[in-house]
Structures are given as structure tokens and as C-alpha cells.
Amino acid sequence: MRRKSSSAPRKIIHWDWLLFTVSVAIAILFFALAANPNTGGGAVTLNLKPFIRQAPAVACVVQGCPNFQNMFWLVIINVVGNIAVFIPFGYGLTAAFQRFNANRFFPPVVVMLGFLFSLSIELTQLSIPSRITDIDDIILNTLGTIIGLALWYVQALFGARKDKNS
Q1: 34-56 pLDDT, tens per residue?
Q2: Residue-number span of the structural domain to which 159 is assigned
Q3: Rg (CA), the chain
Q4: How many structural domains is the chain composed of?
Q5: Among the listed ranges 40-44, 59-63, 93-97, 149-153, which one has the minimum average pLDDT value?
Q6: Cα→Cα distances 21→63, 138, 160, Å
Q7: For 51, left (φ over 0), alpha (ψ -120 to 50), or beta?
Q8: CA–CA gap between residue 85 and residue 140 (Å, rounded)
Q9: Residue 141 included in any domain
Q10: The pTM is what?
């Protein structure tokens, strides 16, 4: 009797994770490129100085200040939000291309794709008068991609350990 080979061919792309990642990207684009009535003025706004608004807001939240509530929401929405929206992107992109994860050059590719996606959003926002193009968004979005990538590897590591112990 012939034994079945345990080394079934692996899929190059996990389409379910790729579909998830594309859905996340579309949602990010929808919110990033929508008109924002709170920016006011209608002028194109460009910030190339990293964390010029966030540093004072974080200091205010940590130390307390008269404008604490407004600064708290600036930190939550701008800092935490920009990181959080790209975590699923980094995780999903890594999961979609699991076949290439053994390649040591793959993680930098995921990070670069997150960076380029964020950069393309920010460059597109230059043409939308009610949006602000901000270097902080690129930095924080790329950080979110890195966290998503790391979470996938941590999950894969614990999953492999669990399989060994079973």
C-alpha cells in the first residue's frame, strides 16, 4: 500500500488573505481620500517636519494640560489610528505570500510595500484641498505595517510550537 506524501504542494499565494489585504487597502483609501471638513480653508496643506504636532500633543496627554481632551483625541486618532489601520495590511500581506516568508528578503518587501502604499496615499492627498499631507502619516503607517508583519511571525512561531507539541 502506498503512503500519501505529506509534502503536498504549497500555494504560492493564499487568495483569501490577498482578498482580505485588498479589502483593507480599499477601506484605507476610502477614508484617507475622503473630504475632511475639519481641516478648513480648502488650501493644500503639506507637513514635512516629523511629529511637529504630535510631540506636543503626546506631552500634553502624558503631563496634563488645559487642552487635554482635544490633545488626547489628536493622539488617539492621528498617532494610534495611523498605526492601527496598517496593522491588518502588514499582517494580511505577509499571510497572503506565506510561500515567500522563508526568504530573508521578504519582510523588507512587505515593509516597502506598506511604505509605498502610504506614500501614494499622501501624494494623492496633495491634490485634495481638504486633506493634509503629512510625513507623520507615512512614518506611522509604515510602523503599522511592521507591527502587522511581526504579529504574523509571532503567530506563526506559536502555531508551529503548538503543532510540535500535539
Answers
A1: 766 665 556 668 889 998 888 88
A2: 15-31+85-165
A3: 20
A4: 1
A5: 40-44
A6: 38, 18, 23
A7: left
A8: 10
A9: yes
A10: 0.80
